[in-house]
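#struct-help
A.M.: can someone run this one for me? Single chain, 127 residues.
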Amino acid sequence: MLILGLLACMSVVAAQAVTFTAFHAPVPVPVAVRPVAYPRYSFNYGVKDPHTGDIKSQQEERNGDAVRGSYSLVEPDGTTRTVSYTADDHNGFNAVVHRTGHAVHPARVLHAPVHYTPALPVTSFIR
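D.P.: on it. Structure tokens below:
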């Protein structure tokens, strides 16, 4: 009985005509162009955390398509890296890196040699 019901459903589906609808690309609609505000900003920030030694700062300003700024940070070796940069449509992005200070590396700590004793063989206690 179940087989007859399935065959009946399949014959109904097969008997229906299958039609396909052609899809076309969307028609472009003209959009009104709104004037864009003149890009101009300026910001700066700084961090000085004596607990972690994180010392850094940045400043940047933009006037139209020209950007200029700089940032500096204290490297782990104690030197200060300062990067000054500019960017515009004519010259692209240009950065100049300066390092100031003298690098200080910690002295090497020598430890006494460690001697290892081989483990004793495990003997069976079951007799």
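A.M.: thanks! Strands lie at 40-49, 54-63, 66-74, 80-88, 92-100.
D.P.: also worth noting: Residues 40 and 63 are 5 Å apart (CA to CA).
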